[in-house]
Amino acid sequence: MPHQNSVMHAVTQHIPWDDFERLVAELKTDADARGFNSKSHLMAMLFAQLSGAEALRDVEAGMASHADRLYHLGVTPAVRSTLADANRNRDSRLFSELFAGMIGRLDRGQRRTLAETTYLLDATAIPLPAHAARWARFSATTCGVKMHVIYDAGAERPIYAAVTASNVNDITAAHEMPIEAGATYVFDLGYYDFTWWSRLDEAQCRIVTRFKKNTVLQVIEELELPEGSTILSDRIGFLPTRLSCRRQNPMGDAVREIRVRTETGKVLRIFSNDLDAPAQEIADLYKRRWAIELFFRWVKQVLDIKHFLGRSENAVRIQIAVALIVFLLLRFAQATQKIVISPLEFARLVRRTLMDRRTIKNLRGSPDPAPRVCIDQLVLL
User: Fold this and answer.
1) Residue 264 and residue 320 share a domain
2) By residue range, what is the domain housing residue 340?
């Protein structure tokens, strides 16, 4: 019977290897490879994430036990000390730019009209051991990093990610994020900065966020409310013309405030620069923020971004970039079958059968049997 590759082979075939080789050449990440090249490094980190390895020893032992099947992937098993050196020294941009390239390829095939594009912005804290390097130290006893993400709510995937120390403010990281003109951006109070809002507004982006309690709106018009909704008021007005230090507020045009009562009884003041859309549409857009929280939970729990294989800044950046690559690979692989609908169940099945010889469509079935060899095919030495 024909040879059947492993589940890991089926998942990793969605990596754009031509882009990867180009990045290797541009960044010269194989200049000091010493037998452990960039592809073997990537595959070792993918194995760590997909298998749920919590330490370098787990990666070394797990890959060694499947050396014959890794051979068909074109890589060699990782040695613990070599993988540690690679995580510390190999340029992390190789992995972050591979992730960005995968997003770019997906966008070319699945791009929607800008009117349908809703981007959610948020950041999540990822703790590190208290004895981690100084670069991640937040206080005398706390270390950690932040992952800043732009999440495409319609496509259910991140389109941008950056990693900073945990003491970097969300709005500081936002100023470095790319802006797609005409898209809708939804975010919370961590991005409360009128200067940044004005950049979005100038790019013809729709903004949906929350007012701070102490922000006063100079009301010029009260809009009619839809019947039977939870919306309490819908008003158009102007923000304060002056900011602290007597600076001029760059958001000088009229804006909108929609007050809505949540299921828990809390009243939210929702801000938008869209003066024409129905109030309920604006309120529903803000409610979609929950999707990015579910994404963060999925990454932390399913991909286990709580156990890092290295303490250096470079090692942490590599592991977070690889986790995001794994998120995309699992989505790509899941799209090739229609049997397992739940992303969580699919990820768990891949972990359980990672090195089995079977197809993606057969994750719930029995492993494919080893190929039989007829006696007359054997060569006696």
Assistant:
1) no
2) 7-95+311-362
